[in-house]
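Box 3.1 A note on notation
Throughout this textbook, protein chains are presented in two layers. The first layer is the amino acid sequence; the second is a C-alpha cell string describing backbone geometry. Keep the layers aligned when reading.
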Amino acid sequence: MSEDSLRQSIEQAFSSVPCPEKKRIAYARGAWETPELVRDFGGRHWKDVPLEKVRDHAAHLSLFSPEAMTYYLPAYLNAALVDLDVRDFLLSSLTISDEAQPDLRSFFLRRFDRLSPLQRSAIRMFLIHMRDASTSPISKQSWSQALETYWDLPAE
C-alpha cells in the first residue's frame, strides 16, 4: 500500500470522530505536561496539528482522554510516517504489554478496544506498512509483535 493510500485510509477511518472539547483533551489532568498538551491540541482539527507539536508530545499519547486519543491518533499515525521520534513512541503505544504487567495491559485494552473495526483496520494497515518498510530485522520484529499480539486479532 502506498503512503498516500494509507493516509487516505487513516483519514477515512477516523473522519466521523468528533473533536473533543478542550476540557476533555487530557486524561491525566494533574500531569505536568497536561497544560501544554491542551494548549497544543485543544480546539484544533487533528489535520491541523503541526508535526512539531506531535513530535513535542510524541511520548504523551497516554495522557489524552479516551475520546481525545481516538481523535488525535491520526495525527500521530501520519507524523510517524515521516518522523522517527514519533514513530518510536507510537510503536510502543500501539504494542500491548505482556501478561506480567496487568495494569498496563488493562489500560491499553480500555483505550484501544473502543476503536471501530474500520479504525482498527487502518492501524493494522499502518503497522503492516511500517513493518514492511523497515530495513532492520529488530525493527521488523517490533512492528510484527505489535501486529501479532493485538492488531491482527479479531475485535471482540
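Residues 28 and 63 are 6 Å apart (CA to CA). The first helix runs from residue 3 to 14.
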